[in-house]
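Worked example (supplementary).
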Amino acid sequence: MSDFGMKVSRNGVDAKVATGNDLILTSQYPLAKIDSTKKASFQNIRIQFNNNIPLQTPTIVYQFAHGYNYTPTVWSLCQIFGIASPYKTGWNYLTDDGPMLVMNGSFGPVYAVTFWTEVDATNVYFYLYRWYDQTITETPNINVTVAGMSLRIRTYVFAEDVPL
Amino acid sequence: MADKQDVGVKVSKPGFNALTAPDYDLIFSSSWPQLPIVATFTSGVINPTLSGSTYVYPTVTFTHNLGYTPFCAVWVKGQIPNIATTSGIKRDYAPTRLSMDKTTVTYGTFSSTTNYGSIQIHIKVYGLDIKKPVSYPYKQPPTIQQAYDPNYGVKLAKPNAKIDSNDMRDFIIHSRCQSPQVDSVNVGQSSVDYTNTSGYTNWVYGFGTYGGSAMNVAYTNYAQAPPNLRINTDNAGNPKPNYYYLNGETSGANRAASIVVLRDPLFVAQEVQVTY
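After joint prediction of all chains, the assembly is encoded as:
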């Protein structure tokens, strides 16, 4: 425990003993920081799909340079629009990754499009993966398509690194 | 209920009085609790072991000893079965893989008949108690982006770091940067919900027990078992704008459910349009 620094607690709580949600600010711990001078730090990205993506192939549908010379922490939140019957989405929003962005049928994700975000020391990548479960012997319908749909992504790039 | 801070720290934008400026003309205010990083853990390389025809990845547990159940997130380098088929670094949001309690944070085991190779994980522990309800005053988002002025603001460097560093990792706080702000933590036993009034979809994270007392990260998607989180839908999956619902366990003496709602930082997002 540091002997010097600054603490701000919630109303009615002694800053000397406050922890967790009662401690608004402490110089003991760094805040997760989004740099307001970097445009890439906070973006709302809309991807309109006029074409489908390949089957069974992880596909980068958008990437951008994050501006750091190390691998930063990234959060993303996405939503798919324009899904037409018989396809549907697992739920309206996904956070960071999810296997059922678009799926076919009512009984599970037999044929689906998944989403995830990846980051390295240069770029942030948004992936889609159109797949089907080859172990299931139902009549195949692998024509789940993203053409005509749009993907809305909100993303944060933090200054803190991921040391992997 | 939200409470108003009578004491704290405020920093206004250049030309504005910190005592009277509205939220969107402040650079920093301690009335907006942000997300401190109170611990980080990085594993070594994790290799699966072959058991019969199944590759089993071991459970990895780290001790934080915070005395409360913190908000945690995990990044994985390597393939994540059924989620991401590439080998780069990504955040893992698979249901029930990441769990935490007052003492430890655990990345749970998984297994597959396919050998996905080695993985490595990094966990960030944020100083927010996900089992203690709290809410804070509404913060009005900005509509106009104002340039950062290095002549105004507040910064506090880490021990042994230079105060004039341009590496934001060297700082505890820096008014050039902002965190997602904590709006509320809603806590229930089997389920909990939240009505959003911010005008945009928040960053929402759900947590719930999964057969024990530890809190597990909830899925934000189709899932077979609780805990799972519905964003802008009701529990049946029907659209319900501005409504968040955490579907938790319905039995178990230690069951608990939690929704953490975060708000955007007070600067304007860059809008990007892409055609694929």
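Two points are worth noting when inspecting this output. Chain B is about 0% helix and 40% strand. Chain B touches chain A through 90 residues (CB under 8 Å).
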